[in-house]
C-alpha cells in the first residue's frame, strides 16, 4: 500500500456522520462518528426561511424527515418540530435536524468538520448573511477555523470564501466528472487544501498531479474495503465513507 503524501495513515471522513448505521446528518450520526474515533465528519448546510444554517443534505424535506416541501420554506422553529430519525429506523424517532452550531459544538476539540455548501445555495447577489459567510462566522465563533474545511461543487462560492478578509477555513474543490487540468487550476487559484473527486474518477495521474501541487486527494463515497485499499494504493490521502466503523483500522 502506498503511503499517503501528507499522512502516515489515511484520513477517514464520516460522510454525514456514520450514515450507514444512523440517520444521516443528525447529532446521533455525528456522535457515533466521534465515538468511533473519526478524525473528520462531513455535513451539508442550507438556509431556513429565516436564514439560519441547518444541517441537511437535500433541498427538500421528504426523504429524511416527516416533513414535506422545501427546507427554505420553513423557519428554524418549524423545522425543529420535524422528526429526522424515524425514516431510518423507529429506534431513532425524535432525532431533529441539527443546526450547524450544534454540530460544531459537538465536534469541537474532538474532530475536524467538513462543511459542504450546495450549488443550489449560491446567491448571485452575495448577501452579507449568505451561507458561505455564515459558515465562516460560525467557524470563527467556535474557534474552529483551523479545524473546518468548506467544500463545494460551485467555484463561485469557493472564490468568495478565498476573497474574504481575516481567517478563513481551508477550502476543498468537489468534482463529479473525469479529471481535468482545470480542476487543479482551480485548486491552485484557491490555494485549496484538497481535491475531493467522486471515487470512480480517481486515477493515478490525478493523484500524482495533485500531490505535485501540494493538494490532497480525498475521494467520496467509499464504502467497500477492497475499493478503499485500491484507492489507497494509488496514494489518495483518505476518503469519505458512510461507514467509518466498518472501515476502521484500514
Structural overview:
It is a single chain. With 250 residues, the chain is of the alpha/beta class. It has a single domain, classed as Phosphatidylinositol (PI) phosphodiesterase (TIM Barrel, Alpha-Beta Barrel). The protein is built from eight helices and nine strands. It has helices spanning 27-35, 76-79, 100-107, 131-141, 155-163, 181-190, 204-212, 225-233, and strands at residues 11-15, 40-47, 53-55, 112-117, 148-152, 170-175, 194-197, 216-217, 238-241. Strands 1, 2, 3, 4, 5, 6, 7, 8 and 9 form a nine-stranded mixed beta sheet that branches. α1 packs parallel to α3 (100-107). The protein is globular. 44% of the residues are buried. The mean pLDDT is 96.
Give the radius of gyration.
17 Å
Unreliable spans = none
Helix content: 25-40%
How many β-strand runs? 9
Broad structural category: alpha/beta
Mean pLDDT: 96
Largest sheet: 9 strands, mixed
Which class in CATH terms? Alpha Beta
Percent strand? 15-25%
SSE order? EHEEHHEHEHEHEHEHE
- The global form is globular
Distance between the termini: 11 Å
Work out the count of structural domains: 1
Label the CATH architecture. Alpha-Beta Barrel
Number of helices, where a helix is a run of at least 4 consecutive DSSP H or I residues = 8
Could you state the CATH homologous superfamily?
Answer: Phosphatidylinositol (PI) phosphodiesterase
Q: Would you tell me which CATH topology applies?
A: TIM Barrel
Amino acid at each position: 500500500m502506498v503511503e499517503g503524501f501528507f499522512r502516515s495513515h489515511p484520513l477517514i471522513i464520516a460522510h454525514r456522520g456514520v450514515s450507514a448505521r444512523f440517520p444521516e446528518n443528525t447529532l446521533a450520526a455525528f456522535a457515533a462518528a466521534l465515538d468511533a474515533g473519526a478524525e473528520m465528519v462531513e455535513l451539508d448546510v442550507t438556509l431556513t426561511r429565516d436564514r439560519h444554517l441547518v444541517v441537511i443534505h437535500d433541498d427538500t424535506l421528504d426523504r429524511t424527515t416527516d416533513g414535506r416541501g422545501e427546507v427554505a420554506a420553513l423557519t428554524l422553529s418549524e423545522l425543529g418540530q420535524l422528526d429526522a430519525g424515524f425514516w431510518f429506523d423507529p429506534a431513532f424517532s425524535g432525532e431533529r435536524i441539527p443546526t450547524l452550531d450544534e454540530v460544531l459544538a459537538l465536534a469541537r476539540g474532538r474532530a475536524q468538520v467538513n462543511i459542504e455548501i450546495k450549488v443550489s445555495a449560491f446567491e448571485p447577489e452575495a448577501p452579507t448573511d449568505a451561507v458561505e459567510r455564515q459558515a465562516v462566522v460560525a467557524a470563527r465563533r467556535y474557534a474552529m477555523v483551523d479545524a473546518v474545511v468548506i467544500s463545494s461543487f460551485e467555484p463561485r462560492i469557493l472564490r468568495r470564501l478565498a476573497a474574504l478578509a481575516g481567517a478563513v477555513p481551508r477550502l476543498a474543490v468537489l468534482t463529479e466528472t473525469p479529471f481535468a487540468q482545470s480542476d487543479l487550476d482551480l485548486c491552485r487559484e484557491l490555494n485549496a487544501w484538497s481535491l475531493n473527486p467522486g471515487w470512480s474518477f480517481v486515477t493515478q495521474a490525478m493523484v500524482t498531479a495533485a500531490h505535485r501541487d501540494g493538494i490532497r486527494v480525498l475521494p467520496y463515497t467509499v464504502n467497500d474495503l477492497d475499493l478503499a485499499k485500491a484507492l489507497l494504493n494509488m496514494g489518495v490521502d483518505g476518503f469519505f465513507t458512510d461507514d467509518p466503523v466498518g472501515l476502521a483500522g484500514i
